[in-house]
Structures are given as C-alpha cells and as structure tokens.
Write a structure and sequence with these properties.
Length: 506
C-alpha cells in the first residue's frame, strides 16, 4: 500500500471513530458570524498575553491549515476566504470529552470555532476556543505546506487542492473576476449593452477554425459549438442595437498549448458609426485603465520582461512592421512574386490558392510577431486574410483592421465592418472555394447573414479580445491553463475508482 493510501486509510479510521463518538462529520448547522479579516485589525489594540477587554465572542469557519498538539492544549491555523488566524484549544476550557474528539481532527478538516480574542506571548492574534464544531472531515491529506502542490499537471487536474494550498493561484482567479468586472463596468459606462447570442449554431461562422459538432434530435439537424459570436452580434447592429458586447465561451476543436485551450473566453463588442481607429483609442483606454486598477500601475513585468501599457501605443502597418522589425526591403513587399518567393525561401508552406496577402501575413507571424513586446497595433491587414473587414478606400488590397500584440502575442483583433452585402457574399464564396472539400472546417455560406446585410447595417467597427490572454498578461501567468479554473487535459491514466492516488497526470 502506498504512503498516501495508508494515510487515507488512517483518516477513514479516525472518521469512523469520531462517528462512533457521536460526532456529525458533515454537519450543516454552524453559521459563522464573522470573517477572519474583520478580526485581524483588533490585534493593534492588544498587548502580548492580553485578552480583548470587551470579552466579545466571535465565531468563524474555515479549513485547518496547520496544527500543533500538546498534552492538554493545541494551536491550529484556520483559513477562510478572507484570511488566516490562530486558534488556541485548551482541554480545561472545552472539557475532557470534546478535547478527546478534537485530538482526532486533521489538517484539512473544515471546522467552526467560537471564542474570544487574545494575543499570545509572541504577539500573534488568536482565538481562544470556547466551542468547536466539525463541519466537514477531510479524508485526504493536503500537500506538505513547505512544498505545496509542485506538480503542474496535478495543479490543473486538482484545482480544488491547488486553490487550498497555493495563495498565488487564488489571487490569479480573484484578479480574473476583477478584470472581467472592470471590462463590464467600462463598456456599460460607454453605453454598450450586454447581450447573449447562441452558443450552438447551425453554421460555424465568424472565424476560420475547426468546430465541435453535435446533433439535435428534435430538430433533426447538426449544430456546432460557436467559434465566434461575431455574425450574430452584427445582426443586432442591423436590428438597431448600436453598441453591443458579449463575454462568453468560444470553442475551437484544435490543439492545446500554453496559449490555446479548446474552450476559451472572449469579449466581442460592436459600435455603430465608428471605425477601427475609434476602437484603437477605446482599447488603449480600457486595457491600460484596467491594468492600473488591478496592479496599481501601467508598468508591469511579464515573465521577467518589463511592459509599459501607458497610452498612446505604437501603431504600424503590416508592411511597416515587416520593414522595420523583420528588415524586409520595401521593394520586395511591393512585388507580389518576390513576396511569394521570400515566403517559400523562409520555409513557409502556402496553400496553392494563397496569394501575396497570405504570404505577407505568414511572414509577419514568423519574423515579427514575437518581437512586439510593448503594446503595438498592426494595421492594414491584406484583404485576402480579412473576409469580414471593410476594404481600405485608398488601397482596396488591404482592410481597415488592426491586431493588438503585447509580449509577442495577439491580444485583440478589430476592424471596420464590411456592410456591403454583395461584397460580403463574394468574399464568403471565395473563402469557401479556397477551402475546397474540407471536412474539418465544414465550409458553408451563411446566407441569412447576407440577407441581414441586405436590410442595411450601419457603418460600424467591432473587436474581439481574448480574456484568458489578457488575464495572463495582467497576472504574470506563463500558461493559459494558469488562468482557467478547469483547463482541458488528457484523461488520467491511474485513476483507480477512488481507491488510490489520482495525482499522476502522465
């Protein structure tokens, strides 16, 4: 039997003996009147070994994170969602019977404590327990407090344990909630309306990616988990909702990496009578303001690299970035054949139907993207790779579009929207023809969206921001799995129906 299984067996024996003594191992009657954080300031008024003069009684509930037992006394550290405090347990206060049951408590148990405040000899604020209650018996031992949950895969699989023993993980997810709240607050204050659009769609649209497919029995039809809400949100512009946004899940049936999870959170918003240039200003203001509120500064460190989010941010066209960052001659970029030849020389394999716009985009991703550390807007994306963006009126070979890069990663994609139904239909048809017979992506023309445009969509601009990547940036998290509570992983290979160790994630 493994050491962990031995400990599990011992804890189960303890639980059985407590039950035989009449202890309710999973009680539902204790209601804490106090949070630990509200008690901590009271320490300022107490001297070592002094009890609170008022003699007020406090009750808290939390998890035992440390325990030191002596003959007739013990100290425990209890943690709730607000903080940690020490508990002093004395046999002559609780009585022999209750103290004997307490001796079978373990680190990890969730308990209720009622008592008075005092300071120990070394000046630590503590509660001298008058009553103790078992709320939930822990049968599995927590990781050693000095080493924590060191296996990264186990942290992702057993996030519940990670949150118990890793304060840094708790802080990341608290910040995530704060970031999303601040996004909502900013957009609400700018007259945007939050909406919900379908997550199961008859046609996968709004982006080029492999969808997850399912089937609806009653409707007798295939449905796809959405890869983007874009086309539905723009239908709302047609309907007269002039500023809309949605924060919700997208799904893409593709690979996993430190930057990609098949289920991820996106913000998409659309504004009528605006251009992509308006969204540049909005994006700078929103993200830099959120950073300052979350981290106290617009200067942050991401994985050891200093990043300055103070507006205004750098702006370059794709051609300018290829010249200034990658060192490619303007003469090459102006010649379609030379661009295609350079891409081939760099080892870029293009589909046979791909043109110079696709070649430039691939060269940018290879030679430029990872070098854009401070916030940089890249504009003038080729029309060839921007099927939903408005053509630039001076140069129809490019679109009025930007992507935002920070620390070498794309964080946002935005453009002035294409609202010409005939142009949109032609681009949809070209997109489908270029894909050919592709069972992976299920190409299908969204005729209803074209019909919506035929009723007239106002000029508009729209943007998508990857929430997970934004949280990574603002919490200095190296992997997208660090900012998703329950990321997708391969199945465990040693899960033993609850009879053994489930921590092996190999």
């Amino acid at each position: 039997m493994s050491e962990e299984n031995q400990t599990l067996a011992q804890r189960k024996e303890k639980a059985e003996s407590l039950a035989q003594l009449g202890v309710n191992l999973y009680s539902n009657t204790f209601k804490p009147a106090n949070a630990i954080e509200e008690l901590l300031p009271k320490a300022e008024n107490l001297e070592p070994q002094e009890k609170e003069a008022s003699g007020a009684s406090y009750s808290i509930a939390g998890r035992i994170m440390a325990m030191r037992k002596f003959g007739k006394a013990a100290f425990c550290s209890i943690t709730d969602k607000t903080g940690q405090i020490q508990i002093y347990i004395k046999k002559d206060i609780l009585g022999d019977e209750i103290f004997e049951t307490f001796k079978k408590w373990d680190i990890g148990d969730i308990v209720g404590i009622q008592g008075i405040l005092f300071k120990t000899k070394v000046g630590e604020l503590s509660i001298q327990a008058r009553e103790i209650t078992m709320i939930s018996k822990s049968l599995r031992p927590l990781p050693d407090k000095w080493h924590g949950l060191t296996d990264v895969e186990t942290r992702y699989r057993q996030r519940y344990v990670d949150l118990i023993v890793t304060p840094e993980s708790r802080e990341i997810f608290k910040k995530r909630v704060q970031i999303i709240h601040l996004i909502r607050e900013y957009l609400n204050n700018h007259d945007f309306m939050e909406v919900e659009t379908p997550m199961m769609q008859p046609i996968p649209g709004g982006a080029t990616a492999k969808p997850f497919q399912t089937y609806h029995n009653a409707l007798d039809m295939d449905l796809y988990l959405r890869i983007a809400p874009e086309l539905y949100l723009k239908r709302l512009l047609v309907g007269g909702f002039e500023r809309v946004f949605e924060i919700n899940r997208n799904f893409r049936n593709e690979g996993l990496s430190t930057r990609h999870n098949p289920e991820f959170t996106m913000l998409e918003f659309y504004q009528a009578y605006a251009t992509y240039e308006d969204l540049i200003t909005l994006t700078e203001e929103m993200i830099s303001g959120i950073c300052e509120k979350v981290n106290g500064s617009m200067h942050i460190s991401y994985q050891g690299t200093e990043v300055d989010l103070t507006p205004p941010w750098t702006k370059m066209t794709m051609d300018e970035a290829l010249m200034q960052v990658a060192g490619i001659d303007a003469e090459i970029l102006a010649d379609d054949e030379k661009v295609m030849a350079l891409a081939a020389k760099k080892g870029i394999q293009l589909e046979k139907q791909a043109g110079p716009g696709k070649a430039k985009t691939e060269l940018f991703e290879l030679e430029v993207e990872e070098k854009l550390i401070n916030p940089t807007f890249i504009t003038s994306y080729p029309t060839e790779v921007s099927p939903l963006a408005r053509r630039n009126e001076q140069d129809p070979s490019v679109t009025d579009r930007f992507e935002l890069f920070i620390t070498g990663r794309e964080l946002a994609n935005a453009f002035s929207e294409l609202n010409d139904p005939m142009d949109q239909l032609q681009r949809f048809e070209k997109q489908i023809n270029d894909r050919g017979d592709d069972d992976e992506i299920h190409p299908e023309l969204d005729r209803d969206y074209v019909r919506a445009l035929e009723y007239g969509m106002p000029s508009a601009a729209g943007e998508g921001i990857g929430i997970d990547r934004l949280v990574m940036l603002l919490t200095d998290a190296p992997s997208i799995r660090d900012v998703i509570l329950f990321p997708h992983l391969k199945p465990e290979t040693r899960l033993q129906d609850g009879k053994g160790d489930t921590s092996d994630a190999s």
